[in-house]
Each structure stands twice: as structure tokens, then as C-alpha cells.
């Protein structure tokens, strides 16, 4: 890899060509969330797009319908007539299409560079942070749209109200989720940057937390002259970043819950949770009070995400505060972010993409609040061997509030198995603390989730891998149980 925290295959500080100059573009692994977003934006910009993926999917079918030439399987022949190839950091140099592109001397761009090529002439908002990026960028997109800004956007999840994760809007604002995992968030050079938190993650790339913090400081340094950094004062890493950026001459606005925190621009008080809705009183720097409401749960985390979006819209982009708040109140959520999959016999099933300790802690805490007196069962699929090895104890702490915990085998994604690294690393401290935890295969996990559940309980599937498919299976199993009991057609 070379120096920790640097990507030897790409220079993320270099200028990015305009998408009109890319020629025909081919995306390897086009079906991924980030790659499909880039493909959609290029198509909307009038670029001829092709792509390949290891297996067919609903995303590939949708991209075909939108005008992309999509292949199942990888083959150098797919590059015939192609001028530019776009990849993510997960694509290895041994991939036959990437190897052929290198041999032919084709331009090879990182996914973030492909995305940045579609942003020319727009005010860019880049949303970064270990946790909350997708929700915050989605909230901001909805708030801007409701205020008449008609933004372009590229998100890590599909907006439920839009049915897509990316679109070119008619306005002059582009909202992008900025991925810090491989250093590629340095590409965007935003007018407004949001940092929800700075925490130790992706240590397989960065090596240590000090290097993570240095990368975020460099990200803040890419904000264009006259731009704004919106940073969370409650998170120690983000607060340190805000102080450092302000010292470097960047305009900084901060937000949080902590009363009397130094230099906080806006804070929330009187937090409320009512089922799947949350609200709070927003106090700005002048003490003006407004009501902030969101139609998604998360008394702490999602309200803070909404406040970050509000500050970016109002302070960063000049949107009227009341219009921003009205847009946030209409936010309907994002796929795989506390997404309700259904309810059978009063048992709710929720799915969430959380895959690092902070995200897992947040979603489990939110689920406990929503469940109230009901029992919470969590099915968690760890993501990456390196992350499981580095943060097993933190994952255990985040899962511990659940009444029952089921761990699946690790979803390796881009990584090869590591000797001695299994889900048992998370299970062991949970057992030691008295938690009800089992490590099971998927079929057994579904059976365990259904076992003994009753009205008012909540089942939560969590992880960045294929655990998302289990929500539908849990609902099916609940229906079958209801039929066997003679309960008729459950709701």
C-alpha cells in the first residue's frame, strides 16, 4: 500500500477532468452503491456509459433501463471503444478489465474522481464523518429540494422519496457523500463541508487514529476560499478539527447538545421521541429558538444529523431557516438506514447498514428507544476481518443493550480471511458480560429471531453485507408462525 493513509494508485489532490472530456466511460463493479451513482450522473450528463459486475441485480437492470450497456462478468472485450475506466479502491489490479485498461493506456479514475467530474460549475457540499454521512447528506438534499434549490446529489443510499441514490438537478448545488475510507474525500474541494464525527475507523488504510485525524485536517483544507466547515462540537475528534480549521482561517460553524460548549453556533435542547418521529428545540448563536422535527427515529443521533444539514443549508448556502426546517420535517428516510421492512403480529422488523462501532451503537440505542417495553433482537453481520479484529470489544459494547444478539459469520467483502479472526471475538466479551448471544448461520439466525417474539418486540438486522436479505425472511417466518397458530392473515 505504501505510506499509511495514502493511496498509491490515485492522486486525489490533482485536478479532475470535466465529464465532457472523458469520452466513453466503463465502470468496473457498476452495481455497487457508489459506482451506480456515478454511472447515473454520467448518463444524465450525456456521457456514453458501460459497466460490468460479477452478478446480475436489480441495480444492473435499472441501469440498463437508464441507458447504460451493462455486462455480467468481467472480460477485457468489454473495454473495446472505451476511453476512461472508473474503479473503486476495492478493485484489485489483478482484475482482468483493469489490467487490460492499464495495458492499453486508458485513463483510469477513482470513483470519487468520476463523481467530481460531474460537478463542474456547481456549489459543492461534501458530507464526511465516520457515522451519519448518508443520513445527513440525504436530509440536506431533501431540505434543499423543499426550499426550491433543486440540488444534484450522490448518496450512499437510495432516498425513499426519490427512488434513486443520484440525480442531476436543475439548481446550482451538488450534495455528495464524501468517503474517507481510502482518502478519496480530498477530491471534491467543497464550498461547504460537513464533518459529523472523526473517529478511529478504516485502520487497515490509515494505520492509526493520528493519521485519520490528519486526513480530516487535510480535507478541511480543501474547502474553497470563502467556504464553510460545519462540525459537531459533541464529538472530540470533530471538535479538534474545528479548532484546527478555524486557526487555519477556515470559517467554522459548530453544533451539538452540550450547553456552554466553547464556540457552539447552534445546539439542541428538549429532545423528544414519539414512535418513529423525533423533535427538539434548536437554539442558534443569538438564542433564537425554533422547532426541529424529523419523521425518523433517533432522539440524539438523527436530530444532530438534521441540525448539521440545517446549518449547511442556512449558513453555508443561504437557505431561509424556516424553509430548511420544513424540508427536514418532510424527510422520509434512506434505504438501509433504520428502514422499516414490515410488521407481523405486532413484531416490527428494521434493517440498517451500520458496520462500524459508532454506527452499531447508535442504531442499537435508537432501536431500544423505539422498542420501549418490547424486546430487541439484533442480527449483526460483522463487516471486514480487519475491522472485526481491531474493534471487537467496541462492537460488543455497542450491541450489549439488545435483549438478544445473533452474530453471523464475518462478511469479508474486499478482504481475505485472517487466521483467528471470527465473530467469536465479539461474542466472547458479550458472554462475559451476561448477554444473550449466539453465533449462527443465516437460517438458524432467522429462527432464533422469531423464537418467543411477541407484539411490541423489534427485530433489527445490521451490517453492510448480505444480512439485509434476512429481514424479509424474518417476516415470512413470523407469518408462518401466525398461520400455524391459527391467527389468520397477520398484519
Write the layout of secondary structure elements.
Blueprint: E1 25-28, H1 33-44, E2 49-53, H2 58-65, E3 69-72, E4 84-87, H3 96-104, E5 107-110, H4 111-116, E6 123-128, H5 133-146, E7 152-159, E8 164-167, E9 173-177, E10 192-195, H6 203-206, H7 209-221, E11 228-232, H8 236-247, E12 251-256, E13 266-274, E14 277-283, E15 289-294, H9 301-316, H10 321-329, E16 339-344, E17 347-352, H11 357-371, E18 376-380, H12 385-399, E19 404-407, H13 424-432, E20 437-439, H14 442-450, E21 458-462, H15 470-484
Parallel strand pairs: 1-2, 1-4, 2-3, 4-5, 6-9, 6-10, 7-9, 10-11, 11-12, 12-13, 17-21, 18-19, 18-21, 19-20
Antiparallel strand pairs: 7-8, 13-14, 14-15, 16-17
Helix pairs in contact: 5-9, 5-10, 7-8, 9-10, 11-12, 12-13, 14-15
Low-confidence segments, given as residue ranges, are: none
Largest sheet: 10 strands, mixed
Task: Return the domain count.
Answer: 3
Our estimate of the beta-strand percent is: 15-25%
The first-to-last residue Cα distance is: 52 Å
Number of strands: 21
Q: What structural class results from the helix and strand content?
A: alpha/beta
At the fold tier of CATH, the topology name of the largest domain is: UDP-N-acetylmuramoyl-L-alanine:D-glutamate ligase
Number of helices: 15
The helicity comes to 25-40%
Can you say what the CATH homologous superfamily of the largest domain is?
Answer: Mur-like, catalytic domain
Radius of gyration computed on alpha carbons:
22 Å
What is the correct CATH architecture of the largest domain?
3-Layer(aba) Sandwich
The shape, in one word, is globular
**The first-level CATH class name of the largest domain:** Alpha Beta
Widest β-sheet, arrangement of strands: 8-7-9-6-10-11-12-13-14-15
Output mean pLDDT. Answer: 89
Amino acid at each position: 500500500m505504501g505510506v499509511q493513509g495514502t493511496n498509491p494508485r490515485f492522486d486525489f489532490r490533482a485536478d479532475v477532468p470535466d465529464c465532457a472530456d472523458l469520452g466513453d466511460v466503463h465502470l468496473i463493479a457498476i452495481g455497487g452503491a457508489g459506482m451506480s451513482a456515478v454511472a447515473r450522473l454520467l448518463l444524465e450528463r450525456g456521457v456514453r456509459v458501460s459497466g460490468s459486475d460479477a452478478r446480475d441485480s436489480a441495480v444492473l437492470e435499472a441501469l440498463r433501463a437508464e441507458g447504460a450497456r451493462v455486462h455480467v462478468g468481467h472480460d477485457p472485450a468489454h473495454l473495446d471503444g472505451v476511453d476512461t475506466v472508473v474503479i473503486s479502491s476495492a478493485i484489485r489490479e489483478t482484475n482482468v478489465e483493469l489490467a487490460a485498461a492499464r495495458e492499453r493506456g486508458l485513463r483510469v479514475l477513482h470513483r470519487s474522481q468520476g463523481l467530481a467530474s460531474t460537478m463542474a460549475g456547481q456549489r459543492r457540499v461534501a458530507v464526511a464523518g465516520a457515522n451519519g454521512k448518508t443520513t445527513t447528506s440525504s436530509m440536506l438534499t431533501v431540505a434543499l429540494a423543499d426550499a426550491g434549490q433543486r440540488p444534484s446529489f450522490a448518496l450512499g443510499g437510495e432516498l425513499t422519496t426519490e427512488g434513486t441514490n443520484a440525480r442531476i438537478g436543475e439548481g446550482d448545488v451538488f450534495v455528495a457523500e464524501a468517503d474517507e475510507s481510502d482518502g478519496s474525500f480530498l477530491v471534491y474541494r467543497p464550498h461547504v463541508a460537513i464533518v459529523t464525527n472523526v473517529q478511529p475507523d478504516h485502520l487497515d488504510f490509515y494505520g492509526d487514529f493520528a493519521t485519520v485525524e490528519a486526513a480530516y485536517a487535510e480535507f478541511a483544507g480543501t474547502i474553497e476560499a470563502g467556504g464553510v466547515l460545519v462540525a459537531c462540537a459533541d464529538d472530540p475528534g470533530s471538535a479538534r478539527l474545528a479548532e484546527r480549521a478555524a486557526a487555519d482561517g477556515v470559517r467554522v460553524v459548530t453544533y451539538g447538545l452540550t450547553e456552554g460548549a466553547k464556540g457552539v453556533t447552534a445546539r439542541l435542547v428538549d429532545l423528544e421521541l414519539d414512535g418513529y418521529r423525533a423533535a427538539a428545540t434548536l437554539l442558534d448563536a443569538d438564542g433564537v429558538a425554533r422547532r426541529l422535527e424529523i419523521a425518523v427515529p433517533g432522539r440524539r443521533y438523527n436530530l444532530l444529523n438534521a441540525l448539521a444539514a440545517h446549518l449547511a443549508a442556512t449558513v453555508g448556502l443561504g437557505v431561509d431557516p424556516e424553509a430548511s426546517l420544513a424540508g427536514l420535517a418532510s424527510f422520509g428516510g434512506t434505504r438501509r438506514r433504520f428502514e422499516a421492512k414490515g410488521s407481523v403480529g405486532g413484531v416490527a422488523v428494521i434493517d440498517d447498514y451500520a458496520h462500524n462501532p459508532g454506527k452499531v451503537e447508535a442504531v442499537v440505542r435508537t432501536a431500544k428507544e423505539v422498542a420501549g417495553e418490547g424486546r430487541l433482537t439484533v442480527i449483526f453481520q460483522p463487516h471486514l476481518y480487519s475491522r472485526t479484529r481491531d474493534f471487537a470489544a467496541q462492537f460488543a459494547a455497542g450491541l450489549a443493550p439488545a435483549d438478544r444478539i445473533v452474530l453471523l459469520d464475518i462478511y469479508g467483502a474486499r478482504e481475505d480471511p485472517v487466521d483467528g479472526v471470527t465473530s467469536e471475538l465479539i461474542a466472547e466479551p458479550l458472554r462475559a458480560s451476561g448477554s444473550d448471544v449466539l453465533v449462527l448461520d443465516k437460517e438458524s439466525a432467522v429462527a432464533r429471531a422469531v423464537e418467543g417474539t411477541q407484539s411490541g418486540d423489534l427485530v433489527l438486522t445490521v451490517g453492510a453485507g448480505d444480512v439485509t436479505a434476512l429481514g424479509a425472511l424474518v417476516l415470512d417466518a413470523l407469518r408462518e408462525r401466525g398461520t400455524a397458530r391459527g391467527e389468520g392473515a397477520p398484519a
